[in-house]
Queue: 2 jobs
Job 1
Amino acid sequence: MKSEFDNRHDIEELMLKYTYALEILKTEIGILINDYSFRNNYNPVEHVKSRIKTEESAIKKLQKKGYEVTIPNLINHVHDMIGVRIVCSFLSDVYQIVDLLKKSKQFEIRQEKNYIEEPKESGYISYHLNVLIPLHLGDTDQLVEAEIQIRTIAMDFWASLDHKMQYKFPTEIPDEIKEEMFNCSIDIKNLDHKMERLNAIMQKYNK
């Protein structure tokens, strides 16, 4: 199987498009959060991170999925070339941000996955929105896909550890580690619910 893209000009042009689309997305997300914070006198977001997958990471993902390394396959089968992660304080904040994003007119929702209600088999918990960002270049209009992950601080901690595990055990994670990670994800879900109850108590006193 090929280990690199054939046409250097085309892949470089595509990576540029991902860069442009990410800038548009970051600007819109920033506006939405700042406007919400101003209107509600409360910022539900701890921090926002973003990245574009490297060409090397994209190739590895295509090969892992069993696809030939081509630009059409990259566009059609790697849905998180652009990634934005929004980390919130509380569980209710996650859903508030999801609602905020879904009301945006600057992109359209392609797919949503609620891994909070239905965690992955590994125990992964988060809320994913795959969005299509309109990009106007020259005389062409096109849609560029991006993945937005919205999660709490606790969920982000678990996901960060899981990511490190994937690199430490690139072939197969030992069963005992999988079991411990899954148990930790249950603890994190319980912790988020406890923190949500604490947040409700704090809101009562603030009123």
Note: The longest helix spans residues 8-40.
Job 2
Amino acid sequence: MTGMLYDAIIIGGGVIGSAIARELARFEGNFCLIEKNEDVCTGTSKANSAIVHAGFDAKNGTLMAEMNVKGNEMMGEVAKELDIPFKRNGAFVLCFDKKDLGSLQELYERGINNGVKDLQILTREEALKLEPNLSDLVVAALYAPTSGIICPFALTIGLAENAADNGVEFKFNTPANKIEKTDFGYRIYSDNEVLETKAIVNAAGVYADEIHNMVCEDKLKIVPRKGEYILCDKKVGNICERTLFQLPTKLGKGILVSPTVHGNLILGPTATDIEDKEGIDTTKEGLDSVIEKASLSVKSVPVRSAITSFSGLRAHINHDFILAESADNFFDATGIESPGLSSAPAIGIHIADMVSKKLALNKKDNFNPIRKGIIHASELSNEERAALIEKEPAYGQIICRCEMISEGEILSAIHRTLGATTLDGIKRRTRAGMGRCQAGFCSPKVMEILSRELNLPLDEIKKNGSESKLAVGKSNKGI
């Protein structure tokens, strides 16, 4: 036993769990977030479209619609407080057949009823003035100026760091293997310890059904819905300024073409229901489908500029978000698929309010919402960068040439709150390894820095928290 009785333990270190942790940190109490992997943002939150949806797609009257619109409205202020990149670039929903104009109008009306601001339906000519590279197939578009793009890594890590700085304890490599009800609340059995808490918040992504089913009589079944993506080089990031969705038809929902907040171009996702909750492989069929469908939206899909492909899983549960006290002092934030990233700030408030009212928690007087991100030397003026290097010379040593990431940024990622311990942890905090060569050149140097700063042998440095070691021994001399 730990001896500590927590007021609430959050299970899951994705964007939803981290948002809830930050909002609970506004209250007096002992809070802990447990995550089965080595870091935050290692599951669903690490691989998605990075879109802050406007809120026109969700059905009227659902929690999904309410949380999406509220989360969208909050995102600008949240990004400012957490010092992360966010841009309201706007979005189009493209219509390819005049017979479907009625469906486009329905989507417009649904958005208006959800409270989405400034929606417009554009003719082909009006749309082309804003997006000249639209394909010849486009006949009209729904325009949502409030849609945005964000970095899901930065949002999740920023929320988690701010929560930790405000007193929330984080425990990594701590799976919830078993949960039992007690007189005081719940007991959670992990690999190497037992944790006791008055309340549990279930934010375990695609595993949230397993956590729910340990406690609740009514059983849930989450289906992992795999989405495959293609990421293109920054040199083609200006093909479109806005996110280009496709109007759902009898052929499916289509895919998006969108700039990213860092200047790349992203295409995808597919939508395939699978059984494997770790099934994040990509397939030729899936990626071919992404390319084929993207060609409906833009004139020339820049396939030759692809630098990587990846896939992510959505926690599909076939109905609305579940944000509820599903058992006594057991709170679900489950079935959070798209638009979960957009909804995260609002879900954080919603669940924290439920927990705080049930436990009669008082608000803190000293909560600090401000978190300072990692300084990116390449974004500074020449004068600012020179002054920074004079003060801290490590910022003058470039480690990742593709993204111009310095040793100073990598050191900051390691030594700050909830610091990185793996190559993927460094990548998500700094973008080292996310450029054109996809870590081909910088990985050895990043490994050396991690080894030195964490005082670990080089062959103990991992890509992520699994058995993903990159150095497995020493070669023979002379070879």
Note: The mean pLDDT is 96.
